[in-house]
Amino acid sequence: MKSAKTPQEVHALLAAAFNTKDLNVIMNVYDANGIIFPEPGKEVSGRAEFEEAVKSICAVPGVMEIKTVYCLQSGDVALGRSEWTITDQGKTQVAAKGMEVMRQQPDGNWKIIIDHAFGAEANLVA
Q: Nearest 5 degrees, angle CA 13-CA 17-CA 18?
C-alpha cells in the first residue's frame, strides 16, 4: 500500500486515496488515533467513528483535488495548509480550506494525526 515518504506527499496521497473510494487506502493516510473534523464544529476520534466519517466523505460523488498551500516541518511533525475541492461533472460539490497536522511514523512514513478540513476558512469561529 502506498505511503507518504515526506509530509509534502500527504495531500496528493489523500486525494488519490479518496478518488479510489477504497477505505483501507484512505485510512492508511491517517493515524486513526488522531482526530478529524469532517465538517465545521464536528470533532471525531476513535477508529470506528473515524471510519464512519471517512465513509461519509467518500459518499460525496466526484473527484477530489488538494492543493498544498504550504507544509511546515519541524522534526517528525508537520503542519499543512490545503485548499481542496470535490467536483462532479464540472460542478463543485465541496470546496474548503483545511489544516492538517502530520507525524512521521516509526516506519518513516507520514500520516495525518489532525485533519481540520475546514480549519482555514475565514469565517470559522472557535
A: 120
Q: Is the pTM of this model over 0.85?
A: yes
Report whether 49 contacts 57 (CB < 8 A): no
| Residues facing residue 97 across a β-bridge | 83
Going by C-alpha positions, the residue among 54, 8, 15 that lies closest to residue 31 is 54
Phi, psi angles (nearest 5°) of residue 29: -80, -20
Task: Spell out where 46-90 has E strands.
Answer: 63-74, 77-88
Per-residue pLDDT of 48-81, as tens digits, reads: 998 898 898 899 999 999 999 999 999 999 999 9
CB 67 within 8 Å of CB 83 = yes
Domains and CATH numbers, the chain: 7-116 (3.10.450.50)
- CB count within 10 Å of CB 75 equals 7
State the cell numbers at 81: 495548509
Distance of CA 106 to the CA centre of its chain: 20
